[in-house]
Specification:
This protein has 200 residues and is mainly α. The chain has helices spanning 7-27, 32-45, 50-62, 67-110, 114-142, 150-155, 157-160, 163-177, 183-199. It starts with 6 loop residues before the first helix and ends with a helix. It has one domain (2-141).
């Protein structure tokens, strides 16, 4: 899409990216994984596809840096190149800088505040829900073949599931949960397995 943009359109798209990711940064409680759900929803409006978002999740495992910032940079770059990446990165980073600065100045005053404690009690399960929603969306783009979703799997699982992706998912989950194998090592091994499969 970047090749088709004039300077005026590029500036407008960068401003949109800045606004969208600033908005996500302001309301992104729960950390990077909770914000991924919001980032994915907004990214679809910029023409980012589910397979591209699945690639983003894989890149987050091997690229250093906070997940939300990596995601914003990735989406911004896909949509509007370097300047889009810069705008999205600034948009998602600035709210945290402002909010953390303000909170640190008054944290002692509100540490035992009942309203704040209640607010955090509500945010925690919402953050978990957003993480689960993002996981399911990413899983549907990876574990199922093109055009399939959770409901079609029930009707005809043999033709809708990617068996290679499912096998990698199950093996990685078992090795990580049961045997505490490093997620970084598992990500690299899975990438090598996928590369070898594409060659042969």
């Amino acid at each position: 899409m970047l090749g088709e943009m004039t300077l005026g359109v590029l500036v407008l798209e960068c401003l949109k990216l800045l606004y969208v990711f600033f908005k996500i940064g302001v309301v992104g409680f729960g950390g990077g994984y909770a914000m991924i759900s919001m980032i994915m929803t907004e990214s679809l409006k910029f023409g980012i596809t589910l397979p591209q978002l699945a690639d983003l999740n894989a890149l987050d495992m091997v690229v250093p840096g906070p997940i939300a910032i990596n995601a914003a940079t990735y989406v911004g770059y896909l949509h509007a190149g370097f300047w889009g990446a810069l705008a999205a990165t600034i948009g998602i980073s600035v709210p945290s800088l402002i909010i953390v600065t303000l909170v640190m100045q008054s944290i002692e005053r509100y540490r035992h505040n009942q309203i704040m404690a209640g607010f955090l009690t509500g945010v925690k399960p919402a953050a978990v829900g957003l993480i689960v929603a993002a996981s399911m969306t990413i899983a549907s783009g990876i574990l199922f073949r093109d055009g399939a979703h959770f409901l079609t799997v029930l009707a005809n699982p043999l033709t809708t599931i990617s068996w290679f992706a499912t096998a990698v998912f199950v093996i990685a989950a078992v090795l990580n949960i049961r045997y505490k194998v490093s997620p970084i090592l598992l990500t690299l091994l899975a990438g090598i397995a996928g590369a070898l499969l594409s060659i042969f």
